[in-house]
Amino acid sequence: MSALVEINFDGIIGPSHNYAGLSVGNIASSTNAGETAYPREAALQGIAKMRHNLDLGLAQGFFMPLDRPNEGWLAGLGTDSILAPKHLLANALSASSMWAANAATVSPGPDTMDGRCHLTVANLNTMPHRSHEWSGTLKQLRLAFSDTGHFAVHAPVPPPFGDEGAANHMRLCANHDRPGVEIFVYGVSGGPFPARQHIEASKAVSRINETQSVLFAQQSETAIAAGAFHNDVVAVANEHVLFVHEQAFADADPLYTDLRDRVPETEIIIVPAERVSLEDAIKSYLFNAQLVTLPEEAGMALILPTEARENDAVWSYLTDLVAGNGPIRRLCPVDVRQSMANGGGPACLRLRVVADPGAVDQRFMATQEKLDQLAEVVAEYWPEAINPDQLSDPGLVKAIVKARNSLLDACGLIELQG
Ligand code: SUG
User: Fold this and answer.
1) DSSP helix/strand/coil, 229
2) What is the tally of structural domains in the chain?
3) Ligand 1: which of 29, 164, 286 to mutate, judged by most atoms within 8 Å of the beta carbon?
């Protein structure tokens, strides 16, 4: 038997990263609409996070940014990047595939009927700029996980049922390599904001992934209305630990009882609203941490956005948490501010895949040397700054295409071109 470990695949932040304000219900995206973005700095922040996690002794992979502008999508709308109206061009140019937590829902081998790791690509069909990600993502995942003895990569569930992937999916288990219970979180209503995950999509993904032990949980309307457009903004799980805000779910108690029944080792850390309000949780993205198991029995760590350290209520709660005798032992703030300003924290930037790293196409696995190489390409080709007003500049569009192609070339992944 090979060793199954959790590998975090981070989406490399693409050269078209900008703040066009495309995500209704995502407060950071709306607040920063029209601001100037810094794609080069953004991508270097993402690479630094990967370096940090490698240094912790964690397995790390990455995904290439998708081809933007998506000319195929624009052609389907009867236009192209030269003639498209501004709002369509912004949708075609979005670098949103950086948030790899929305790429797919992953059910690791120990949870599935045939013992393979199943990945169902998310259709992301609620938001126009994300609805055309799936085809590029499918192509990339079929390459990274082409070993069909270990992996099965599935096409997305059809519309109209919205599916946003691993951001609305958690897994509780005694250890990564043991069978677990998978929790599919869906939304029904979000007050003024859309509920992006439809229960029919969650059920379909659980069938397609052939998961054996499944629970469905409804996100609370209050959480979505406060800006929790994905569940991973108010909850995160790792092995036997669920770290969750008190107001995350519509009906939490039966869920917690079920979880404890199915995985007796379960520990649920509920953060009370009187210590951290939903508003502070969403502003600081405290739950959008990567909750990881450190090597050598060192316990668990939260890899948090630096914004969590800057919020007094949040930091005082966290300091008390790690001072106690609980499973979370260490706090590691990382600077991913460029992504955060579009509503994407450390956990949004990664897709967790529990698998044997040797079964993955090695071109997608990170080492410090490879990250040096990525950083060099980014430093040379990524635009320094983009204001959404500039998006129709053909020179910028050309530079974006060239930058991605240079990265594909450096990584030996030219087959992902176009
Ligand atoms: O889908 N932001 C993304 C952020 C995704 C965060 N992912 C997780 N929670 N896992 C979204 O709302 C902003 C794009 C813009 O406004 O240009 C955006 O798409």
Assistant:
1) coil
2) 1
3) 29
Q: Which pair of structure tokens corresponds to residue 232?
A: 């991973």
Helix or strand run (H / E) with residue 51: helix 39-55
Q: Is 164 a catalytic residue?
A: yes
| pTM of the predicted protein model | 0.97
pLDDT in tens, 157-175: 999 999 999 999 999 999 9
In 267-356, at which residue ranges do the beta strands (DSSP E only) sit? Answer: 267-271, 290-293, 300-305, 328-334, 350-355
Token readout for 380 is: 């040379």
- C-alpha 280/C-alpha 135 separation (Å) is 36
Best residue among 30, 96, 131 to mutate for probing ligand 1's pocket (most ligand atoms within 8 Å of CB) is: 96
Of 194, 126, 115, which is closest to residue 165 (Cα–Cα)? Answer: 126
Alpha-carbon span 148 to 134, nearest angstrom: 20
User: Residue 129 C-alpha to ligand 1 middle, in angstroms?
Assistant: 10
- H helix intervals, 99-211: 128-131, 134-144, 199-208
Note down the domain range covering 211: 5-416
Our CA dihedral for 336, 342, 346, 347, rounded to 10 degrees, sits at -170
Q: Which residues line ligand 1 (CB under 6 A)?
A: 19-23, 26, 29, 94, 96, 99, 101-102, 130, 167, 229-230, 232-233, 342-344, 348
- How far apart (Å, rounded) are the C-alpha atoms in residues 50 and 46? 7
The mean per-residue pLDDT over the stretch 292-297 comes to: 95
User: CATH number of the domain that 34 lies in?
Assistant: 3.75.10.20
Token pair, residue 96, equals 């949103």
173 is annotated as an active-site residue: no
Q: pLDDT tens digit string along 189-214?
A: 888 998 999 999 999 999 999 999 99
Residue nearest to atom 10 of ligand 1 (CA): 348
- Within a 10 A sphere around the Cβ of 189, how many other Cβ atoms? 15
Name the token pair of 221: 């309307």
Q: Going by C-beta distance under 8 Å and a sequence separation of 6 or more, which residues neighbour residue 83? A: none
Query: Looking up tokens 């240094």, which residue turns up?
Result: 55
